[in-house]
Amino acid sequence: MMRRFAALLALMLTAGCAAEPVTAQATLDGQPPIVIAHRGASGERPEHTIAAYKLAIELGADYIEPDLVLTKDGTLVARHENEISETTDVANRPEFADRKTSKTIDGQKVTGWFTEDFTLAELKTLRARERLPKLRSTDYDGQYEIPTFEEILTFLAEANKGRERPVGVYPETKHPAYFASIGLPHEGPLLAMLDRFGYRGRAAPVFIQSFEVGNLKALRAKSDLPLIQLMDGEGGPADTPGTSYAAMAAPAGLTAIAAYADGIGPYKEMVIPRGALGRLGDPTNLVRDAHAAGLKVHPWTFRRENYFLPLGDKGGINPAGHGDLAAEIDAYLKTGIDGLFSDNPREAVAAAKTRAGG
To answer: First vs last Cα of the chain: how many Å apart?
Structure first.
C-alpha cells in the first residue's frame, strides 16, 4: 500500500493538481448546505457513541447521524451494522462466545455477533471500539457503551436547549427488510420514538434515510417526515431485485423517487467521479437532475485521511495522514449539493461556512 501511495504522490507532483474551474451552482432551496456528522464525529471518537455525537455538535454539525438496528427485545440501538465485532469488544467477551454465528444479510453471508441475538441489557455490557484502527486513534476504545435511539434523542434534546437553530437527527434504517423478516421491523419503533420527542411534520429537523425502497415507501404511508433515498455507487436496493442504483440516478428514476422521498444520498463519486489515478473528474449531471425532480442531494462520505482523499488533495504518502479535506468538499459544494456526510465535522463545517460566506 505504501508503494502505491508513493507512486500516486509522484504522479500528483509531476502532473500538477489544479482542477478545472467550475461555476458554482445553487442548492435546491437556496439555503446553505448542511453538514451531517457521519456516525457522529467518527473521525475522532468511536462511531455511534454519545461522545461522538456530543463532539459533533460542539464542532458545529447541523445533524447527527445514528444508524439504527434492533435488539432481540425490539429496541433501536445505534450501530453501523447489526454484526458488531468491528465496533465493539464482543469478540473478546467469553460469556458471548457461543453467540458467534453465520447469517445471510441482504444476500451476503456474514459471520460474527449480531444485535438481534442480544437483549438490550446484554448489549449494554459491551464497549465500543474504533472501527478503523489502522487509520485512527484507539485511545478511546473501551470507554463508551452502545446507545439506544431513545438515549440519543434524550441527549439531543438536552443539547438543543437554548439553541436558536436546533441540531437535527438523521437516522438510517439498516437492513430493514431483513429485520422485518425476523419480526423486528423498524418503522413502528422509529416513528413512535420520533413522535415522542416532538419530531412531527415536514419542517421537523429530521431526515430518515435508507438504501432500501420498500422501507421508505412504508414510512411515507405513515408519516410526512422528510425521507432520503440512499444510493451506492454499484448494485441496487436489497429489497428490489433487478433495480440498480445507476438506473435510479437517471432522470426517470429520480422522478420515481420524488414520489416517496424528499432527497437522495448518493455515494459521492456519483456526483464527481474519480479518474484512473484517483484524481477528481468532471461533475456528472446528478445534482442538476435531482434538483429538477425536486430532490435534495446529500452525498457521502467525506473523510480527511489520505487513504480516502482524491489524488490532488492527499497530504503525503501515509494513508493515515491528513490531507486537504476542505479542497475536496469545496469541489462538491460547487455542484450545488444541499448537504454532505462527513466523519470530520470540524473541517466540513469550516468548508461549508466558507462556501456560504459565513
So the answer is: 39
Residue where the block lists cell 469541489: 331
pLDDT in tens, 188-212: 999 999 999 999 999 999 999 999 9
Q: Which of the residues 80, 175, 186, 291 is marked catalytic?
A: 80
Q: Report the sign of the C-alpha dihedral through residues 212, 133, 302, 194, in that order.
A: positive
Instruction: Please say whether the beta carbons of 325 and 309 come within 8 A.
Output: yes
DSSP 8-state class, residue 116? G
Q: What is the pLDDT of residues 77-100, one digit of tens each?
A: 999 999 999 999 999 999 999 999
175 is catalytic: no
DSSP state of 312: G
State yes or no: is 38 an active-site residue.
yes
Place of cell 418503522: 187
Helices 149-159 & 187-196, crossing angle to 10 degrees? 20
CATH class name, domain 2-12+31-82+146-356: alpha beta
Q: Where are the domains of the chain?
A: 2-12+31-82+146-356
